[in-house]
Specification:
Belongs to the RuvB family. It is found in: Nucleus. It contains 5 helices and no strands. The protein starts with a helix and ends in a 9-residue tail after the last helix. The protein has a single domain, classed as Helicase, Ruva Protein, domain 3. It is about 65% helix and about 0% strand.
């Protein structure tokens, strides 16, 4: 693994989670193999970082686009439950 790729993974691990950074290592290695590379480069890390989101970015995405999801219509106009006595 290239030194700058290690530094980027360290930054990603610090800002997100160690688990996420470790999972990126495996995915970046596969991307490296697909391009017939010999070591994981910073571009490989960047590619998998854009493909797989961490919890924080996933939550941001859901909050940003929540009005476009089907469940939002159900929660926006709840019908009161009618009870029969």
């Amino acid at each position: 693994m290239a030194d700058d790729a290690k530094e980027l993974l360290t930054k990603v691990g610090f800002e997100t989670s160690l688990r996420y950074a470790i999972q990126l290592i495996t995915a970046a290695h596969i991307v490296c193999q697909r391009r017939k590379g010999t070591e994981v480069e910073i571009e490989d890390i960047g590619r998998v970082y854009s493909m797989f989101v961490d919890v924080k970015r996933s939550t941001q995405f859901l909050m940003e686009y929540q009005e476009q999801y089907m469940f939002n219509e159900v929660l926006a106009d709840p019908e009161p439950m009618q009870t029969t006595s």
